[in-house]
Amino acid sequence: MTTDYRPMWQNLGLDLKAHDDLLKNLGKAYQQIILNQKKRPQKMEYLDFVMREVHGLRIKELIDAKAAGRKVIGAFCVFVPEEIVLAADAIMVGLCTGADFALEDVEKLLPRNTCALIKSAFGFKLSRVCPFLEAADMVVGENTCDGKKKAFEQMLELVPNFYVMDLPQQKTAGGRRLLRLEYQNFLRAIFELTGVEITVERLRRGIEISNNKRKALARLSHLRRAEPAPISGLDALLINQVAFYDDPLRFTDSINQLCDELEELIHRKEGVFPAKAPRILLSGCPMAVPNWKIPWLIEQAGAVVVGEEACVGERGWRNFTKTCGETVDDLLDNLVERYFNIDCAIFTPNPEREEHIIEMAKDLKADGIIHYSLQFCQPYSIEALPLERRLQERGCNFLRVETDYSMEDIGQLQTRIEAFVEIISQI
Fold first, then answer.
1. Distance (Å, rounded) from C-alpha 319 to C-alpha 321?
2. Do residues 189 and 163 touch, judged by C-beta distance below 8 A?
3. Radius of gyration for the alpha carbons in the chain, expressed in angstroms and rounded
4. Measured torsion, CA atoms of residues 316, 319, 321, 324, in degrees rounded to the nearest 10
5. Does some domain include residue 115?
6. From start to end of 13-157, where are the E strands?
7. 118 partner at 20 to 30 Å CA-CA among 41, 104, 187, 311?
8. Does the residue 256 lie in any domain?
C-alpha cells in the first residue's frame, strides 16, 4: 500500500506490531494461493485491489462515513439482515473469523475444544488486529449454535457495543414468530443507534440493494456451470468473501462486469481448467478470509470447485427478499420469509439442506461432493455423518473432511483429497 494508514490504525486502537504481522502473513498467503493461479479473468484485478486495501482504503471509507454521521454495523452471520442496516443509511461489514490469532489468550476465556471460527473472533478482538471490529458502532452476534451462544456471554464483556440476536432452532410457526420478533427488535435497535426512521421506501431500497448483490452472485454461480470452468473455485470463493466487506453497490457492479467477461470466455470455450477436469461441490462450514486451505488443495489436485454450499457461498445469497408490501410490517414479513428459508445446520430437523446439495450438484454438473467441517463445529460435524450415508445411497461421490485453520494437517488432507479426485476422474 502506498498510503500510510498507520495513524488511522493507531487511532482505532490496533496493536500495530501484531497488525503488521497479520498483514504480512495475509499477503504471503494471498500471493501463494490466489495470485499464483494461472489464466485468471482480468476483472479479478478489482478483487485483488479490494484485498490489498481491505484494511486500508476500505477502513478509511468507513471512518469517513462515520465522520459524516453514518453508523457501521459489524456482523458474523448471514442471518443478520443487511436490508435493515441499509435502510437506516448505515453500513454493514463482515468481521474477521478466518484465521487463528492469540490462541493462548483466547483459551484463557474459552475451552480448547471450541470451534476455530468462534476462537478466531475472540482472537482478533483480544489481539486488536481487526479494524472492522474496532470501527464498528455496533457488533451483532447471533445465537446460532450453543458454542456461539455461550461464548457471546464473554464477548459482551469485551465489546461494549455488542448486540445479541436470538435465532430459532426449528422451522415451526413458533420459530418463525421468534425470528419476526428478533428482526423487529433489531430494526428498533438500528433506529436507536442511527436516529434514522426506517420507512417503507427506505426499507424497500435496502431490499433492492441486497437483492441486486445476490443476483450478481447468482449470475456468477450460473456461469460456473460451463465446461471448461471459466473461473477457479478459489477466485469464486474470494468473491463471496469480499461480498461481506465491500460497498454493496460497487461490489455488485464489479461482479456484473466480471460476469460479462466470463460470458465471453464461455463463448470462446476458454477456461481456467481443462474441460475434463473433475468438478467438485464444496459443502459445509463457512470459509472467511483467509481460509482458502481446502479449495486450494482441491484445485492443486487438478479438480475445480464449481460451487460452495455454505454461508460464504450459495446459502448466503440463495433466495431474494420480496419488495411487495405497503407497510414496514409487510416488508419485515418478507425478510422473515427469506431468511427463514436458510438451511443452516443449526436447524433441527434440516432435510432441506440434503435436497439443496443434490440440486446444486446436479445443476453445477459436479462429479463429487467434499463436505468440510471445522473441528468442534457440532452442527455441521454431526450433520455430515448422516449426509454422507444418505448421499452415497443416492449415488453421490462424497468425501467428508474435518480440519481447523492451521496447516498442520495439510499433508494428510492433501493425500485424501488427491485420492478422491483420482477416483472420481476414473468414473
1. 7
2. yes
3. 21
4. 180
5. no
6. 72-75, 91-94, 138-143
7. 187
8. yes
